[in-house]
Amino acid sequence: MLKGKQKRFLRSEAHHLSPIFQVGKGGVNENMVNQISEALEARELLKISILQNCEEDKDTVAQEIVKGTKAELVQIIGNTIVLYKESKENKKLNLPQ
């Protein structure tokens, strides 16, 4: 689990990122979860935007993605989800203790 200080650090790091995935009408599927997992391995921190036509609640979408990717939910701002997962090969971020 992330501590408050770590979440603040990750939020500041994520601020300038653009969402690289969009969840739309189809909701979350296995293919999307796999792609997000690969992107997390490469980047560690990413944003996902939830489109207006998404039929699921944003909290439900976030939980499905977190469960599927085993990532940490940093925050949900409006219709944007910020996720973090420590990379095995491409470690870039050093979290504060």
Automatic annotation (TrEMBL):
Signal peptide: none annotated. InterPro entries: RNA-binding_CRM (IPR001890), RNA-binding_domain (IPR051925), RNA-binding_YhbY (IPR017924), YhbY-like_sf (IPR035920). It holds the Pfam family CRS1_YhbY. The keyword RNA-binding applies. PROSITE patterns: CRM. Keywords: RNA-binding. GO terms for molecular function: RNA binding. Residues 1-96 form the CRM domain. This is Ribosome assembly RNA-binding protein YhbY. It comes from Metabacillus litoralis.
